[in-house]
Design a protein that fits this description.
The chain is 30% helix and 17% strand. The strands form two sheets. A six-stranded mixed beta sheet has the order 2-1-3-4-5-10, with helices on both faces. A four-stranded parallel beta sheet has the order 6-7-8-9. With 282 residues, the chain is an alpha/beta fold. It contains nine helices and ten strands.
C-alpha cells in the first residue's frame, strides 16, 4: 500500500476554514459553527465563498472549489470543515488542486456527500476525517463529538479504528464514483458504508454494482454503519401499490458482501443517526 500522510494535529489557535462544498449554509449556521470552534480554542476562518448561494449549492462549482483550493494553499489552515452535506462535492473534483493538498496536508472533515472529497484525498495519499459536519453536531452523541475533536488534537485515529486503513463513507456517493479517478484505493483497506433515505431495492442495486466491479474482492472487509430512514416499494412510502422489495439491510449485505467471502463488521456506530464515530480515511 502507498504511504498515508496524516495532516498535523491541531493546537490551540489553529485555523479551521468553514466551507460549503455541497449545500449552502445559513448565516445562523455559520455563526454557530464559528462560535463552536472558538469555544474549542480554535480560530474559525469564513471564506467569502462560504456565504454564497447558487440554488441549493453554497455558490457555483468554481466558487466552492476555490474556497477549498485557497485553504489547501494556505499553510496556516489546519482543517477544512464542511458546514453541511447534501449534494455537490462530486461536481468539484476536476477543479481541485491535488498538488496543493499533498504539499500542505489539511484535515478535510465531514461525512455524507464529503465522501467524494475523502475518496479524492485518499487517492492522493493524504488522510482525511470522516466525522460530523457542523450542522449535525447538535444531534450527534457527545462521546462521538469528543472523539472527533481528539482526532483533530492528536492527529491520530480514534481507538476504535485501531490499525485499520479505512476508506469510503456514503454508499450512494461511492456508487456515483465507481470508474472515476477519485474512487478511493481499495487494496488492503476496510470499506466504510453508510446511507440514508434510500429505497431498499436501490441499496441492492448499488451493492450489486460494487460487487460486479470487484470492490468486495479487493478490500480487507466492510464496516457496516447505519442505514437510516429507508423506504420500500409500498403504499406506506407513497407508492400506488404494495410491491415490497422485502429484504433487510443485513440480508442485502449478506447476499452481496458476505457471500463473496468478504469480512464484515456489523453495527458500526457511524452514519446519519445520533452515532457518528470518527474514522481517519486513506
Amino acid at each position: 500500500m502507498t504511504p498515508l500522510h496524516l495532516p498535523p494535529a491541531l493546537t490551540e489557535g489553529s485555523r479551521v476554514a468553514l466551507v460549503t462544498p455541497a449545500r449552502f449554509a445559513s448565516p445562523a449556521l455559520i455563526d454557530a459553527a464559528s462560535n463552536l470552534l472558538t469555544s474549542w480554542g480554535l480560530a474559525p476562518v469564513v471564506p467569502t465563498q462560504t456565504t454564497l448561494r447558487e440554488r441549493q449549492f453554497g455558490g457555483t462549482d468554481a466558487e466552492r472549489a476555490e474556497a477549498l483550493n485557497v485553504a489547501f494553499h494556505d499553510a496556516d489552515i489546519s482543517a477544512v470543515w464542511a458546514l453541511r452535506g447534501g449534494y455537490g462535492c462530486t461536481r468539484l473534483l476536476p477543479l481541485l488542486d491535488g498538488s496543493a493538498l499533498q504539499a500542505n496536508p489539511t484535515w478535510i472533515t465531514g461525512f455524507s456527500d464529503l465522501t467524494a472529497l475523502h475518496g479524492w484525498a485518499s487517492g492522493l495519499g493524504v488522510a482525511s476525517l470522516h466525522a460530523p459536519v457542523a450542522s449535525t453536531i447538535p444531534m450527534t452523541k457527545t462521546a462521538d463529538v469528543e472523539a472527533f475533536r481528539k482526532v483533530w488534537r492528536t492527529g491520530q485515529p480514534a481507538a476504535h479504528q485501531g490499525a485499520r486503513r479505512v476508506v469510503g463513507g456514503n454508499l450512494s456517493v461511492l456508487f456515483a464514483m465507481l470508474g472515476t479517478p477519485s474512487m478511493p484505493p481499495l487494496k488492503g483497506r476496510w470499506l466504510l458504508l453508510e446511507d440514508l433515505d434510500e429505497y431498499l431495492y436501490h441499496l441492492d442495486r448499488m451493492l450489486v454494482a460494487l460487487g460486479q466491479a470487484g470492490v468486495f474482492d479487493e478490500v480487507e472487509g466492510v464496516l457496516v454503519g447505519s442505514f437510516t430512514d429507508l423506504k420500500d416499494n409500498t403504499k406506506a412510502f407513497g407508492q400506488a401499490v404494495d410491491n415490497p422489495f422485502g429484504r433487510t439491510v443485513r440480508e442485502i449485505v449478506e447476499e452481496h458482501v458476505v457471500a463473496r467471502g468478504c469480512a464484515v463488521k456489523w453495527d458500526v456506530p457511524t452514519g446519519h443517526g445520533p452515532r457518528n464515530a470518527p474514522w481517519v480515511l486513506g
